[in-house]
UniProtKB/TrEMBL annotation:
Monomer. Interacts with integrin. It is found in: Secreted, Extracellular space, Extracellular matrix. It comes from Cyprinodon variegatus (Sheepshead minnow). This is Spondin-2. The lineage of its organism: Eukaryota, Metazoa, Chordata, Craniata, Vertebrata. InterPro entries: Spondin/Thrombospondin_T1 (IPR051418), Spondin_N (IPR009465), Spondin_N_sf (IPR038678), TSP1_rpt (IPR000884), TSP1_rpt_sf (IPR036383), TSP1_spondin_dom (IPR044004). Residues 36-226 form the Spondin domain.
Amino acid sequence: METNSKTLSFSDALFHLLVMMLNLIPGVLSMPVPTDIPMCTASEPAQYSLTFTGKWTPAAFPKQYPIYRPPAQWSNLIGVTHSSDYHMWQSNEFASNGMRDFAEKGEAWTIMKEVETAGEQIQSVYGILSAPAVVGGTGQMSTQFEVFARHSYLSFVVRIVPSPDWFVGADSIDLCDGDHWKDKVTLELFPYDAGTDSGFTFSSPNFETIPQDRIMQITSSFPSHPANSFFYPRLKHLPPIAKVTLTKIKKTNQIISLPLEPTQSNLLPTGNEIEEKMINTPLDCEVSPWSPWGLCKGKCGDSGVQHRTRYVIMHPANNGAACPLLEEERKCSPDNCL
C-alpha cells in the first residue's frame, strides 16, 4: 500500500511537470509578461502627442553653461512604444552599445538596430518615434505616436549637447490605466550619465570609462567632484533640466498632421507655453589655492612685508557667495639684508 502511494504521487508530479512544460511552449516565440504587472485591457488603441520642453537656462544651471563650440542644445528625440518585457535603457543597469553611441555622439543607427532586433525576436516593440533636435537649451520639439493594450509603454532618450555621455529620458512609462488610457502625463526630466565616458564637464574630451559603469542619475552632489558641471553643493536637488508632456489626442474626423520640420520659430516657446517660474540657481564664487608667499621686502633693521595671491576660477551668479579677498600680506624679516 505504501509503494502504491509513492507511485501515485510520482505520477502526479510527472503530470504537473508535463502540464507546466506545455504551458511554457508558447513562450518560446514571445516572452511572458510578468504576472505582477497590471495588464492593460483597453479595447481600442490611443494616439498621443509628445511635447519636449528644454529648461536648460544659464539662470538655472549657471556653472560652465555652454555658450559656444557648441552652445547648449538638445539632440533629436528617439523613442519606442513597447510591452513591459522590454527596456530601451534602465537606471542602475549597463547601457547597450546603441545607448552608448547615442549618449556620446548622438548616433542612432545602432540603437535602432537593437530596437528592430527586439521587435523581431520577442515581439515586444511596436513602434519607433522621433522628434527634431532643439537648437537651444530652452526650446520645444513635438511628435505623435500610437499605443495598444499589448504595447502600452513609452521609453525615450534625448542627448544633452555638449556633454561626455549625458542624456535625459524616460524608461517604461505606462500610458494605460486598467481598461482606459491616461488623458495626460507630465514628466520632469533630470540628467543621467550613461556610464561610458568619464568626463566631468560639458566640454570634456573623450575619456572612455574602463570598466564601464552603470547608468546613474546625476544630482547636485553626485558625482561628488567640484569640477563636475552639475555640482551644486548648496542645493538638495537639481532643478529639472527639461519636461515632457504626453497628451491623449481626442478622436475627430480630421486627419492628424505630422510634426513640422525643425525651424527656429517653432522650437522657441511663445506666450504661456512655459508656465514655470524662472529658476535662479545660486552659484558661489570659486577661487584657486593661495600662491606661495613672495619675497620679504623691507629696509634692514625694520620688519618687511610679503604677499601671496589667488585668482577667481568661477565668478558668482544668482546671489551666490561673493569672492573672498584675492591678496594677503604679512610682516616678515627682510631677505638678504645688507
